[in-house]
Specification:
By secondary structure, the protein is α/β, with parallel strands linked by helices. The protein has eight helices and six strands, in the order ββαβαααβαβααβα. The longest helix has 25 residues. It is globular and about 50 Å long. InterPro entries: Adenylat/UMP-CMP_kin, Adenylat_kinase_CS, P-loop_NTPase.
Length: 222
Amino acid sequence: MLRAIDSNCKPTSLTGSCLAGGPGSGKGTQSTKMASHFGFVCISVGEILRNQMIHHATSDRKWELIAKIIANGELAPPETTIEELKQQFIKQLDAEGFVVDGFPREIGQAFTFEEQIGSPDLVVFLACSNQRLRQRLEKRAREQGRPDDNAHAINRRVETFKQNIPLIVKYYQEKGIVVRVRLHQASNCIGTRPFPLELVCSMVQEQLFPQGTDAAGERGAN
């Protein structure tokens, strides 16, 4: 259960899941769809950071440095990421629940998140080969021109993910809250054909809302 601090500095509990996966695995698309399916709010870590850089990188030294870090394929400072997440939770405390897209990206983020916000109820991990991740990122670079999709950054991001994800998955596996979705074949990778969202949502439903309960904790009609 996630714990956020409201505007009156009071703790509150929230239902939440994280969707983790390599760069280019389709986290953003599936997080949005999952959130819509369950009536949750989707919070994209990458989108938050990119928006802040767009608005502040030219006038704020902090965000100028973060923009350079991310453009080099490295992770934003963890304290910045956590603080931005906290602010998003505070702004939307009336939400039924949350799907946090692209988080955590290294084990330290997971620890800090639990200390300051809480433990997710579920972590969905999209597993896709490194080769396929690179192919998808290169395609996105040609089509969208994101600054962190340059050749050097792509290699750096994939390698960083490869190094960090085993500890993250192991940590949440030991807590019994990981749902792993394997995307081995190119034809099954998100974006080339419809992703089995119904299957994923069914798995999430079973973990988050057992015995027919819904997001509000109410039992569904028989």
